[in-house]
Input
Amino acid sequence: MVCPLHGTSFVYDESLLAYDFGTDHPLKSDRIKKCLAILSANNVIGGNQSKNLVVPPRNSTDEELLLFHTEAYLEFVKGASKTGKVFLDAGDTPAFPGCYEASLKVVGATLKAIELVVSGRSEHATNFSGGLHHARKGNASGFCIFNDCAVGLSILKKSFSRIAYIDIDAHHGDGVVYGFYDDPDVLAVDIHQDGNTLFPGTGHQYEVGSGEGEGNTINLPVPPGSGDDILLTLAREVVVPALRKQKPAFIILQCGADGLEGDPLAQLSYTAGGYISFVKQIHEASHELCNGRLVLVGGGGYNPDATANCWAAEYAAISCVDFSPEIKMPLSKSNRWTMEKIRQMAVSVRESFGLD
Output
């Protein structure tokens, strides 16, 4: 594994905890705080790993949000943020007082991570408070007020002609995928639980982009119960070959941890070891293809402790620090019938997209 020369920045301060829908909501804002505590306790950040730094976020600006979102939607959220008494979507994403300002910080944290990598101050960077991939241009969705991934991609398009977005959240990243569905410069590869069984009900294999972007969207829906063998087969057979074909100048990896077995909102059977192995493959590809320009963002994960542990191990992996015993745990396996179906899908996708 290629290790970062300039360290891996962890974008965080406690202002990010303000993105909080309340104690009864399944999205817990303290996951990233728990993640940092694990990394600090294991000297992955601090101690003898001084090149790995905690960097405070910044606020995004309205001008940056408008690179993806509509002005009418921004004004709607601003109004809702004053009282916090309405839902921003059909019922999953409640407004709360100050939700506009809290969202600016989350988006700004992803933009800060991107800036650290683009400038060369860090080889990699993470914003695990981000990954809010469901928000559309004109509406909230699925706990996501603004789409930090999409705003980040829009910023990157100003400097780079080819960018890759990889998403391993259990839920399909519909806001990003459809936001760049006709864009020839953005490769979007999304591995998710089949939309016939899980919100938001999208991400079918036949959806491959449109217009100039046709062939730049790869949806890989997997059935409930899918294990690490499926995740890693798709990484090896589809995701990495797609990256090699695209040759992106920058990679954003959405690391939603709700695919972990036992997550209360999804039905996949990944382990932390499977996630880590996937992230390592993307990390290697980033060094092969784009000088290590890689940013990790968070996303789903509704068992807070398990999510924090998984993200900490992923951060350690891209920093070339092996501290997690979960890496050594046996990987989960799917039944033979399911695995055969996935192999057939991989072959079909490779043929359709001309992947070597």
Summary: The chain has one domain: 17-353. Strands lie at 8-11, 54-55, 124-127, 163-167, 186-193, 217-222, 250-254, 294-297.
